[in-house]
Amino acid sequence: MRYRIDGDLQISEYGYGDGFEKNGVRFEFFSAGHVLGSAQVRVSYEGESWINTGDYKVENDGVSGDFTPTTCDHFITECTFGLPLFRWKPQAEVFAEINAWWAANAAAGELSIIYSYSLGKAQRVLHGLDTSIGPIYAHYTVEQINAIYKRHGATLPQTQSLTDLTAKTADPRGIIVAPPGLQDGKQVKALKVKHDAMASGWMAIRGIRRRRSYDKGFVLSDHADWPGLQEAIASSGASCIYPVHGYTEIFTRYLIDQGFDARDFHLDLERTT
Description:
- The chain is an alpha/beta fold.
- It folds into 2 domains: 19-86 and 223-271, Metallo-beta-lactamase, Chain A; 91-218, Rossmann fold.
- The protein has helices at residues 91-107, 121-128, 140-151, 186-191, 206-212, 226-236, 248-257, 265-271; strands at residues 19-22, 25-31, 39-45, 48-52, 74-79, 112-115, 136-138, 160-161, 175-178, 195-199, 216-218, 240-246, 261-262.
- The two termini are 31 Å apart.
- The mean pLDDT is 93.
């Protein structure tokens, strides 16, 4: 938070499972497994409890920690990918595909680049890369987040800075890890990168990959997929579910059909304004 937000922040820090009480209301924090430090918040008062998940995923990515199933009466859940078509492969299979793609490019002596968000996704990608294939270059925003992750115990491979890299100095067997905003930048064009890919859950929709003109799209998301959302809801034991952020209307209707007291939180908010 201090890295991402300018200014003199006053931050109270709590471990997972810890919390505080104010005016008889108990606040507790549990791992969401989304990115390093991400947390679900459970709020309890007079025997009733609510959880706001924030963004989460149920598969451990090796750098962000486990999603912690936690019980409550009311469950506010993200549903960014709340459609049946979103079903993730085990990440080991996805990384086998990424490394095979990179290895083929390296064997041809052609530099690769994989776009991924600087916070969370880039570290997950780095953790899964096969370092025997070639050197790894990283954008400076990725490197800065890497340093924070490493200070908190994450195991990440050694990277070389993209800052001073040129077409002449770049090892053609290498791979660049950079944020998506760099795709149309001058630096990438100057490096004459022939193979680019995007790591995102949105790559499950082929039309998005085609519109962005990526050579490859690897379906790798830091959000829960359709089965993951249902797994988290079931583990909460909650009867009242509030989907937010994503395909809320469709997911709410599905939950109602499954016997839950489900409410589209966005619709509820609209009715009160």
